[in-house]
Amino acid sequence: MAAPHQYELRSAADLRFEPDDGLRRELHDGVVHVVPPPSDDHGWRVRACDRALSIGEPDNVYILQNVGVHVGLRRLYVPDLTVVYRGTPYHEFGYDPGGVLLVVEVVSPSSVTLDRRAKPGVYAEQGIPFFWRIDDGPRLQTFRLDPATGDYVLIADLGPGEAGEVAAPWPVRVDTSELVMPHKR
What we know:
It is a single chain. By secondary structure, this protein is of the alpha+beta class. It has one domain: tt1808, chain A (Alpha-Beta Complex). The chain has 2 helices and 14 strands. The protein has a 6-stranded mixed sheet, sandwiched between helices. Helix 2 links the parallel strand 9 (100-106) and strand 10.
């Protein structure tokens, strides 16, 4: 009788043994998840959000796409956008969460549960002050961490075709119609 397969939980350091094939990998409780390439709509939403955040961006932060954030012993998430304070330590494929100001997740069909449920809870647990989620529609929801409860509190909800100013982490003017590719408006 064959011995049962033993699977060893991975750490962020183990990701260096993964193939350099251009695919994004995240680590969820020691298990490597390969994220499929995003759609053109997804890529556009990330780019449009990056542009909106860049206007008025403070000098003490960087806005980065697809970089890792260490969110626990065997967890490395790769948000679509990450705003980190300059000088935040980067090691083993990610930034320390204490230097992360904002994470932005654009929900994809392959990441619905993670982006809507799991990741916000973990980001809050790690003390990341702001979380933004872009969902179908497109809809932008922005949250701030409530230090008293340790949970995110909704601070803005802009639905399809709505525009407004989001006050935090700095004033940002957002028009959700800009989150749609021009030829699809």
